[in-house]
């Protein structure tokens, strides 16, 4: 089973130029940055893509300027937020509108996304097959049948597996793992 | 205090779908792209003719320099050249 690293450990590996660390960094935070662009600021796909690439380009260039490796997630959130606002202002210059985002609404979305990242981290700790099943069902919106066919498990058992996996994630979040490892 | 019941966990997971694969791949290729970008910017700084080529047609100039002018490289280079 893969050993899950903290954000700080991953950032430290990126700084050292550890091969593979940057790929993990992008893998770990890509959903978060994508969600801020698309849910927080409701950017159109091509605008979200530009911001997404710009966020990771700047993160790559400025990772060494990060004061605390633990603070990488809020740092990325702030960077993404600023670039989304820049993009919206640029769009408003070309097509004037009153679509400047409500700051409080964005704060709420970011707080919820932080909770979602905590759940995601717990899911990573629980590991496969739960990670795979829950990711396919909740994040990729796959049907029981598709999940069953892909993972070669009876689709009639998917609902109960999802339920058990959710319990494991909750236990992980509660800090009482109850010795539950993926079965 | 955050309370995570199963229903909320499911709702929160739905908020983080995967980013499009191509976006993730492009971001992961940044370290390799970085040296290419550094080289192109350095050349633009030293070579006025190359700089003019870049200003006239960025994609063609990148291709002529022997690199794949992917949308990401072109957009990143455009940003970097603003400071040259």
CATH topology of the largest domain in chain A: Rna Polymerase Sigma Factor, Chain: A
Major interchain interface with per-chain residue totals: A-B, 41 and 27 residues
What can be said about the biggest beta sheet of chain B?
none
The number of domains of chain A:
2
CATH homology superfamily of the largest domain in chain A: RNA polymerase sigma factor, region 2, helix turn helix motif
Taking pLDDT < 50 over at least 5 consecutive residues as the criterion, the unreliable ranges of chain A are 177-183
Return the structural class of chain A.
mainly alpha
What can be said about the biggest beta sheet of chain A?
Answer: none
Number of helices of chain A: 8
Order of helices and strands of chain B: HHHHHH
Intertermini distance of chain B: 50 Å
Helix content of chain A: 55-70%
The 3D shape of chain B can be described as elongated
Short recap of the structure:
Chain A is an all-alpha fold.
Mind explaining what this structure looks like?
The complex is a heterodimer of chains A (183) and B (84). Chain A is mainly α. Chain A has two domains: 121 residues, Rna Polymerase Sigma Factor, Chain: A, CATH 1.10.1740.10; 57 residues. Chain A is 70% helix and 0% strand. The C terminus of chain A is likely disordered. Helix content of chain B is 73%, strand content 0%. With 84 residues, chain B is mainly alpha-helical. Classes of the chains: A mainly alpha (183), B mainly alpha (84). The interface between A and B is medium-sized, with 41 and 27 residues.
